[in-house]
Design a protein that fits this description.
heterodimer; A: about 450 residues; alpha+beta; Cytochrome Bc1 Complex, Chain A, domain 1; six-stranded mixed β-sheet; 12 strands; disordered N terminus; B: alpha+beta; seven-stranded mixed β-sheet; five-stranded mixed β-sheet; 18 helices
Chain lengths: ~450, ~500
Amino acid sequence: MAFSSLPANFAMPAALPKLGGLDFKPPRGTRAVLGNGLVVYLLKDSTLPVIHMTAYIRTGKLYDPAGKIGLGEMTAGLLKDGGTAKYKPEEIDRTLEFLAASVESSMGIEEARADLTCLKKDLDAVLDIYADVLMRPVFAPEKVKLRRDELLEMIRRRYDDPGRAVVREALRSFYGPSHPYGWRSEEATLKAVKREDLAACHANYYKPNNIIIAAAGDFGSDEEMLGKLEARFGAWPRGEVKFPVLPPVRLEGGRRVFHLEKDIPQTYIVMLQKGLKRHDPQEYPLTIANEILGGGLSSRLASEVRSRLGLAYTVYSYFVKKPDFGYSLAYCGTNPETCGQALAEMLRQYDLISREAAPDEEVKRARDSIVNSFVFRFPTPFDLITERASYEYHDYETSYLDDYIGNLSKVTPASVLETSGKLFKTEDAAIFVIGDSKRFDKPLSGFGPVTELKEN
Amino acid sequence: MADMIKSREDKLPPGASVEKDPKYPAVVSYTLKNGLKLLILEKHFVPTVSFTMIFKVGNVDGVQGKTGLAHLFEHMAFKGTKTINSTGYEKEKPALDKVEKAAQALIAGEASAAPAKEKLEALRAALAEAEKEADALVVKDEYLKIYTTLGESGMNAMTSTDYTGYVVSLPSSRLEAWMVIESDRFKNAVLREFYQERSVVMEERRMGETEPSRVLWETLGSNAFTTHPYRNPTIGWMEDIKRLTRTDAEAFFRTFYVPNNATLAVVGDVEPAEVIALAEKYFGDWEARPLPGRDYPVEPPQRSEKIIKVPFKAQPALRIGFHNPGMDHPDIYAVIMACEVLTNGKTGRFYKNLVEGRELALHAWAYPSYPGSRYPSLTVIAAAPKAPHTAEELDAALMAEIEKLAKEPPTRWELDKILNNYEAEMIKQLESNSGIGMNLAQNEQLMGDWRYDWKVGGELRKVTPGEISEAAAKYFNRENRTVVFLKEPR
């Protein structure tokens, strides 16, 4: 395989004023633990009369029983909507909506979240509802039915937008449809969920010692806010949480191509490769490698596939860390008549970065990009305190955020090359394509053994 | 606080004013001699600043056969200037002219009645060759790389039918760097790599053609309007995009990208006096030019219901568009309130009666003004049925809810809830620097006052329950509607 020349040298224009240093140290906020183990992060901010709060509940879609995938999502989604011991669903909706407040809960892959937003004047009333929602949901049967029917309708619609479906289906093929990192809820697994399952799921995971709360806004002093939380959550007894043991990730080696036939004017390509476990220090060189490869509009993928060749509007890459092996993902939407050309270029770019050291200038620019925009991780006090809570939730060192820039600054062209060489092995990549194969410029079989799939 | 504002105000140049009414944020306003309007709002939690530059030009200002030009120009505004992205403009200019000549020859060849295949191939090859020569003189993506190095966040641009916006956030120590780069961008843009970027835009259009919701929106606009240019999609028709030239885009740029057609909002950790001084220094010599008139053909009243069925391989969905009287018409406030009565939250009527209740809908929303706000537009209901119910059943139920509202005025509780939410939104929108920047600049440039949303809030308070019913009857009726159903082909 021939490689094109490396990117030309780039220097900042002389006309720009000298750039000053950036020395923003994100505030730490306050961390406290209630008697029952509930962890609380607070950051007071009285700029506006608003309060935001979120709770991380240690659970996730990956803990669903295999026969009841969707259980966690239904549980989280019904905490408020299904009513509580103290409040009927209609009463909650009417109170919150009249106050222009919101209490919403949702399920992620590795966590459940419960969010609150309200005006300062309504904090007590809204916090009363929020606490009851977290501690004493009752899952009213008609609301369970409604939620299940909605999820079933969303299953019927899950291939409607192929540009989104492609990522979900690619991960399903990559990890396997029976591994929690790859699975999705199905009609049968949703129908298997009974109301008792929801109550049992809540009873197991929703315990104070399994929750981290983060709040920011105009709530008075930290002591006042802690007092409000203690008054509502203090008597909630701690308890043991049982986590199922997850099967280890097993990734097949060798190139695999998956194709889903669809008569649409654009073809969607997703390429997946093995990634990192969450606390792997290779995160830093991988962050730089990804920034160079597909992190923004001046990255190699965007520069070649989009800007120079005009083959795509959307082309980028990112990586995701997980407790077990995460993944690196590259995405591209292109004309079916240029599918082969775009895919070949994506593969070529991964090969290039894993075989040739990137120029110093390019590594430095990628580092500058992340270091200089670091402050945008926390545009508001709530974003900052939520980020701090999330690091504790995911078991990072307490200094992770504060050391992040320092760790990134140590990345060199050599470490980018070493990490890329270890992680980017296109011969083991899984390639997933949704598109109209009659119009492809090259058959997909030229890229590896093809498995034909159907929308199911 | 008052002292602080006083001392800041002392530093401001003559002509600058600070908003002192506590109903509004303390925005500093200033207009350069060339007409460029500045809005500055200080916020200091983090050392960052968000810039929003809004031009009052969008697809509505395009001409017949050249739809999509506003959007394609927006892409071109990332391709540099005479000094950025170029190894030397003197050498580059003849190469760019050669590309343009080759491209126009190809477009003419493709448009001819019976183009010979060999001839087209030769024209394509000539264009590719000219592009290769020009590309050799480009410093690839330099404009983007500068911003990457500066630590940008959220660098983007957006084109609607009404406006084009350019946004970026930077560490606040980059204030002057932004002024240097962006003043050059809008004074000295060079539209290099035009035809490659036109291909990127065609891919963007193809992407939209695979998304059911975009297909619905486009079909609604192009069928509801017969005369007014709101009928054209912002991205443009594919056949038009194929014929756009760099020459078209340059003429467009000269006409509309002038300081007297723009507002700049600067929000964040900045000192207003410094922002004004730097804007004077870098944007002061940007030349103003008279703008063309914007009185486009007025859409005639719709005389009968239009029903369109779009075959598309996806689950059913629908859009209902009713012509509205425009944002400057006094009825619009009752129209907005009617939309909110129908769709505001889980206590809103559509959710309560159709999503819950009869379980006909997966969701149902209302949008007061689509595709724009500069001219009379559409008030739209967007909804999707829940199987086994059909889109037609859902349509009938939505219309029944509307007819009920037209007969029975809403309750005071419903109205107060909506007003409480509007007021809370006005506070919450101040949380995001880029969000409030966009709001201020858009409202100033398009609606004539950055306080527009607050003033609308005041107007909504005055609307009576009876007026809401009257508006529903007057505008949300069958003769005035266009319905688009997305249906799976059999």
